[in-house]
Specification:
5-stranded mixed sheet, 37% helix, Nucleotidyltransferase, domain 5, 118 residues, alpha/beta
Length: 118
């Protein structure tokens, strides 16, 4: 049953992965102290760190339950990396699910609206 959404904050100093059910209830947050933003560390290193953080999350959350993955990044630059990130993460992690990449401010607004916390 697909009933989980992963929200990823891929920042300059850390990566946080929120596991949320379809009712918008936060189940768990996974934190990784590696940076994940390609604007800060380059695309290849960002992909490597994101892959490690996601792999750790997927040890506890079965892939089959994931509806989609959203990745928020500061300095997103309107699509400069998104297709590459989507393709590489799906390939690295064998994820057959929707992956979206967007400016982190959009994630903060959605979080504040839905949960009262940006």
């Amino acid at each position: 049953m697909k009933d989980i959404v992963l929200g990823i904050d891929s920042g300059a100093s850390k990566i946080e992965i929120a596991v949320v059910n379809l009712d918008g209830i936060l189940i768990e947050i996974f934190r990784d102290d590696r940076p994940g933003n390609p604007a800060s560390i380059g695309l290849e290193r960002s992909l490597k760190n994101l892959s490690k953080a996601l792999a750790r999350t997927l040890e506890k959350i079965p892939r089959e339950r994931i509806v989609c993955v959203g990745i928020g990044m500061a300095g997103y630059l309107e699509g400069l990396w998104d297709e590459h990130i989507k393709r590489e993460l799906a390939k690295m992690l064998d994820l057959e699910t929707r992956v979206e990449v967007f400016e982190d401010i959009r994630a903060a607004h959605a979080s504040a609206h839905l949960l009262g916390d940006g």
